[in-house]
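Quiz preparation item.
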């Protein structure tokens, strides 16, 4: 996904926080594919056996990227089952997750480690939103790996590095002009049109910095993996895209495979580059932008007056 949790005052400039702090929740789900107006043709649900066959065809692939929509429980279940399936076959070297910062690691923990111990080792509460990503969503993914003796690594950019990333203009030229513009457009759309244009580029830089961070962790894990084993990334769909996401930061000799989850009737854009579409049941996504605009109006309303328009 493209999103920036921007609640850490130590990581971001003071003048940015008042404007952006309320926008983080909307960006979390919107940029993972919830807020597009295009409705593509229906696709039949993917049978579990089809996905397992695909994984078998991908045997020996050094990197497998799973792209999810963060507010969909079926996507989390698919990821957890993929971890279990690969681990059972002895094909899983490492799991890297967007939901924990780089530096977090379960390496060295026993398979019997408690969930509290695992969360502490992964620096889970530092991984994004205050208090961390919803453990009920990602706990099964992480614990299936831990119980199988497979290390789990955080891949995301630590919040303490966000302020520096916002100022690094080198990210502006990493992608093609079209790719960079797509990142800028995603920031605009994902923040419901409430973000000042002056913040588009700084926020897009954070997204590229996150991709770069995850790519570094993946590369190191793949280089340390045993022959025939795969490193698995669990991340939002935007980060998993081959054209503008994590793969653009990987060494040229790496040939990752990308699987992206979507609904049978989805509003997600199908132009995302992927090797496999995992079609899963979907639940309705909450209109985060409507909530955001309501909150914005309440925050901007003068005392005793009518709410101001954003």
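Solution:
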């Amino acid at each position: 996904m493209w999103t920036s949790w921007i609640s850490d005052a130590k990581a971001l400039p003071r003048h940015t926080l008042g404007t952006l702090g309320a926008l983080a929740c909307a960006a979390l789900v919107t940029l993972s594919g919830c807020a597009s107006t295009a409705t593509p043709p229906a696709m039949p649900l993917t049978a579990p056996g089809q996905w397992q066959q695909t994984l078998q065809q991908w045997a020996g692939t050094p990197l497998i990227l799973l792209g999810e929509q963060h507010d969909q429980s079926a996507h989390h279940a698919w990821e957890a089952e993929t971890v279990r399936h690969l681990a059972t076959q002895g094909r899983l070297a490492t799991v890297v997750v967007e939901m924990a910062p780089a530096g977090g690691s379960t390496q060295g923990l026993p398979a019997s480690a408690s969930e509290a111990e695992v969360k502490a080792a992964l620096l889970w509460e530092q991984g994004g939103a205050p208090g961390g990503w919803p453990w009920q969503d990602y706990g099964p993914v992480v614990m299936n790996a831990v119980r199988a003796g497979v290390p789990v690594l955080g891949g995301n950019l630590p919040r303490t590095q966000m302020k520096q990333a916002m100022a690094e203009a080198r990210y502006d030229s990493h992608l093609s002009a079209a790719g960079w513009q797509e990142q800028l457009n995603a920031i605009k759309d994902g923040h419901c049109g409430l973000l000042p244009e002056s913040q588009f580029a700084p926020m897009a830089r954070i997204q590229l910095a996150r991709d770069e961070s995850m790519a570094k962790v993946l590369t190191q894990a793949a280089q340390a993996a045993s022959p025939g084993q795969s490193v698995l990334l669990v991340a939002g769909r935007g980060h998993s895209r081959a054209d503008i996401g994590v793969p653009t930061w990987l060494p040229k000799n790496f040939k990752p495979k990308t699987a992206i989850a979507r609904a049978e009737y989805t509003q997600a854009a199908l132009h995302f580059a992927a090797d496999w579409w995992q079609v899963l049941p979907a639940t309705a996504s909450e209109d985060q932008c409507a909530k955001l605009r309501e909150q914005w109006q309440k925050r901007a309303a003068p005392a005793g007056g009518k709410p101001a328009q954003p």
